[in-house]
Amino acid sequence: MWKRLPFRLRGYLITMSGVLLLSPDALLVKDTTVDVATFMFWRGLMLGLVLLLIAAARYRQRLGQAILDCGPAALWCPLAFAASAWAFVGATRLTSAGNVLVMLNLAPLVAGLIGMLFFGQRLRRQTWVVIGVCIVGASLMAAGEVGQGSLLGLGVALIIPVSIAVNTSVASSRPGTGKRGLDTTVVLPLGCLAMLLPAALMGGAQLPGGEDMQRLLLMGLLLPLAYFLIQTGARYLPGAEVSLVMLLETLVGTLLVWWWVGEVPAPLAFVGGGMIVAAMLASSLRDLARQRRKAAEGAPDARRLRDEAAEASIARGEPAPPVGERH
Questions:
Q1: CA spacing 20 to 30 A to 134: which of 38, 101, 150, 278?
Q2: Does any domain span residue 115?
Q3: How does it sit in the membrane (predicted)?
């Protein structure tokens, strides 16, 4: 059943699953009392250990070669991954959640530009429209808190979309042989090491209190699988579309705060959330209607033919087609 789904749909389902697991992250960051260095030390340590265990279980003695196969992505993806984590935690502590979310919403736009300018990834006009609508919708959700907090926090928050865009764009640009794109999840433990070492040098290697430790352990259970799924999504989708799906974190995170803390969202939050859901649903339905219309007219499904060609090349052990052709 899974293998019969189009690659793009697989990518959306994988990435959405990761975003759902990632959604409680902001709550955990806000709800802990430890300093940023201690938080990042334990975040990097627990994430790194779990992600390393997953990579080792999947690749065993081939793990070293799998990392080398990532090429430049073995450097850029871990650095961008660590930078986005440091910036997210730091900005969340320095400024309002609204400011952080507004900056985060720029990630799909930045990723689309990076993919187009540096990797030759082509996005459909429909995707650009959805990106624009979702950015507006997510910004409306955060509008109530915009302007609160420090300018330093705003500057730190600006690092988040750039880092996410670099990671997803570089990851999605690497052609692979066994799947639609190369598996860059194996380099995530290196990103965790890039989180952990600066935090240790800043004095973060200390044991938190009991309640903080419980929250950090919960984070250690949820986030590794979340980041693994999101990074895997970049094997099936352009970086801009992975970043676009990540905007759902704004919607789900707001609903979690409402449910867990009892903080009722502002009316604009419901309007913005509705825009996000409506834009993504309309885009999916339009794609489905287009495919059914072509099939009814007897025209070949170009996307299905590309997917079949990719599967055939995989079976023959040949490299996957270039990114510009894959998307």
A1: 150
A2: yes
A3: Multi-pass membrane protein
Residue 236 exposure: Cα atoms within 13 Å on the Cβ side: 22
Residue-range definition of the domain harbouring residue 103: 7-172+182-316
With vertex at residue 91, the alpha carbon angle to CA 249 and CA 75, rounded to the nearest 5 degrees, is 80
DSSP 8-state code for residue 150? -
Rounded distance, CA 134 to CA 136, Å?
5
Q: From CA 84, how far away is CA 229, in angstroms rounded?
A: 17
pLDDT given at position 285: 78
Residue 324 inside a domain? The answer is no
Sorted by sequence, the CB contacts under 8 Å of residue 191 that are 6+ apart come out as: 77, 78, 79, 80, 81, 82, 85
pTM over 0.70: yes
Query: Which residue type does 13 have?
Result: L
Q: How many domains are contained in the chain? A: 1
As a whole number of angstroms, the distance between CA 96 and CA 102 comes to 10
Contact 219/43 with Cβ under 8 angstroms? yes
Contact 165, 110 (CB under 8 A): yes
Q: What is the DSSP letter of 149?
A: B
Query: What is the spatial distance between Cα 99 and Cα 233, in angstroms, rounded to a whole number?
Result: 27
- At residue 318, the pLDDT reads 46
Percent of the chain whose predicted confidence (pLDDT) is above 70 = 81
